[in-house]
Amino acid sequence: MKKNRVKFDYSGLTDSELLAFSQAVVIAMTASASFFPTPNPTVTALNTAVVDYGTVLGIAATRDKTAITTKNEKKEKVVLMLADMAAYVNNIASGDEAKLSASGFDIVKQAETNPPIDIPKNMLVQAGLNSGEMVLSIDRVQGALSYNFQITPDPLTPESVWETQPTSRRKYLFQNLEVGKTYWFRVAAIGPREQVTYCNPQGRAAA
User: Which of 68, 75, 86, 113 has its CA 20 to 30 A from that of 57?
Assistant: First the structure.
């Protein structure tokens, strides 16, 4: 069964194209808040990054080396935020073309010839820099479009409810966890044809 999705890599756009596109996404995601109520990152955060990016574009046009370096850093931030928001849109829309179109992102229609995706491997669960933070990371899964990082409190049972954080990246930081409390973690790789593969869950106390 074919499943549509939105594109999440916009690193190939020129500076002016990226600015115009990201501004359009901000407008579209604001208008479609009923479809996408809790985007990650937030629309406000993306808009702030886009405004900062647009501001430095004019300065970088003077060819000042410092300004160009700053511009490139701002551009990379916008590209990464768009990727994460696109992963969220794909997760929420689940192939619904009307919702995907409302997001403002470019739609990529999926072919049915994609090979199956592998199970996420080498999941690493580590304490973050601050109390109550845990960092999950996995190896890249060939063919995966995005990942769902999941957490549930101990004890782990068949009835456990997993909190899901979708992202296009292979690492995620869980915050505001109860120090000393044990949580279970796992990662799902999301493929192009409604494929979902899970790694084995790991339990660890938050530090």
Answer: 86
What whole-number distance in Å separates Cα of residue 71 and Cα of residue 192? 33
Beta bridge partners of 205: 182
pLDDT in tens, 87-109: 999 999 999 999 999 999 999 87
Q: How far apart are CA 63 and CA 40, in angstroms?
A: 34
Amino acid at 3: K
Sorted by where each starts, the structural domains of the chain and their CATH numbers stand as 5-108 (no CATH), 124-205 (2.60.40.10)
What is the model's pTM?
0.61
Confidence band, pLDDT 50/70/90 cuts, at residue 33 = very high
The answer to whether residues 103 and 25 touch, using CB atoms and an 8 Å cutoff, is yes
81-84: long-range contacts, CB 8 A cutoff, minimum separation 24 = 81/41, 81/45, 81/46, 81/49, 82/8, 82/10, 82/22, 82/25, 82/46, 83/8, 83/9, 83/10, 83/168, 83/169, 84/40, 84/41, 84/167, 84/168, 84/169
Paired tokens of 184: 């279970």
Say what the pLDDT of residue 110 is.
61
In this structure, how many other beta carbons lie within 10 angstroms of the beta carbon of residue 133? 17
